[in-house]
Amino acid sequence: MASPSSSGKYDTVIKSGLKLKGGDKSREVGVKAAKKKKKSQEDILTEQLQASAEQELQEQSELVKGATQGPTTAQKTFQLAREKRTNQRVNEAIQYTHRQRMDKLNAHLGSLSEHFDIPKVGPG
């Protein structure tokens, strides 16, 4: 095994960093300076389209926000009337059991004239 101080095939190797031609000497090797990019026509058009799309979204959100301000007085009164009717129906349905309702229906059908009876079909 050869020691690092012994002469060998790696004696001529330069052990410092690379030196590039025409580069800034104060800058470290391997660090690239940020370059200013010129905007192409496509980039300008895409930015304009994005800006217009964002503006349209804002306008639409304002329209939706304005449209959903809440129920009008007519809508409120309709809602209250509907709730009142449903509560009344529920109370009527709870008032009688199924058997009581069937008895009431049978009594009503029994009080009707024979005109509403089901006609007998066939011999008998």
- Beta-sheet strand percentage? under 5%
Bin the helical content.
40-55%
Q: Could you give the distance between the termini?
A: 126 Å
How would the global form be characterised? elongated
Oligomer: single chain
Give the number of DSSP strands.
0
Helix count equals 3
Could you describe the largest sheet, including whether it forms a barrel?
none
H/E element order: HHH
SS-based structural class? Answer: mainly alpha
What is Rg? 46 Å
| Low-confidence runs | none
Overall mean pLDDT stands at: 81
Structural features, described:
This protein has 3 helices and no strands. The longest helix is centred in the middle third of the chain and has 27 residues, at 41-67. It is mainly α and 124 residues long. The protein has a domain at 42-67 and 75-112. 52% of the residues lie in helices and 0% in strands. Residues 21-43, 63-85 are annotated as: Disordered. It comes from Symbiodinium necroappetens.
What secondary-structure arrangement, pairings included, does this model have?
Elements: H1 41-67, H2 73-95, H3 98-111
Biased composition (Polar residues): 69-78
Protein name: FAM32A protein
Region (Disordered): 21-43, 63-85
